[in-house]
Design a protein that fits this description.
Number of domains: 1
Number of strands: 11
GO molecular function, one term: serine-type endopeptidase activity
CATH architecture: Ribbon
Pfam families: Peptidase_S26
GO biological process, one term: signal peptide processing
CATH topology: Umud Fragment, subunit A
CATH class: Mainly Beta
Protein name: Peptidase S26 domain-containing protein
Radius of gyration: 20 Å
InterPro entries: LexA/Signal_pep-like_sf, Peptidase_S26
CATH superfamily: Umud Fragment, subunit A
Strand content: 15-25%
Length: 231
Amino acid sequence: MSRRTALLGMGCGLSLMVSASIINRSDFIWNRTESVPKGLYFVDRSARISTGDLVAFAPSDEVRHWLNDEGIVGSDWPLLKHVAGLSGDEICRCDTQVSINGITSVDALKVTESGSALPVWQGCQTLKAGEVFLLNSHPLSVDGRYFGVQDGARIIGVARSIWTYGNRSAEDQATVKAIDSGTGMASVSRRARLRECHPATLNPLSAHPFLCDPAPEDGCTDLQSAARLEP
């Protein structure tokens, strides 16, 4: 081994030791799910949160236990979700359609692969200061389409990609951009149906993520569309 190689190795080792003493290992997350690219992420706890950011999020104890019981993700595992709504944004769920500022973004399912009912909320709400709406483009993502508005204080930090794999299709990337920007990709007919979902017909988003707000005519929606969900 040459002296130069030895010195380089010593320098790299010293750098790793210094980094390990400064950076908490809890600031690194290995994502094993499909809702965002798999791989290693660094959680930037000091970053300012903006619409479109991918963030690490600590769900409430109740949501965490539900995710664990359903086998979706471990009880001590943070979720990686995109910030789709912040203070001043209006979010709605009308039946299974979820919209941001009047534009349809995603659709929700009604049951899990095992047949368990998914959390349901209905109606519209304008986010207040400190509230966030989290949404991924993946159709099986477990996010705001089921749990509604969340406390922004539960965001751990912005998730920065270090090394990821599993490229998304161009169509999926466009959907992510549409959700992040709030512009959506809805057709005229879907927009028209959303306008029929008036905020006054139902209670605003339930503070309890598992409380099914009954619809005015037929109560909670029938169960269908079972699928294996991704956290």
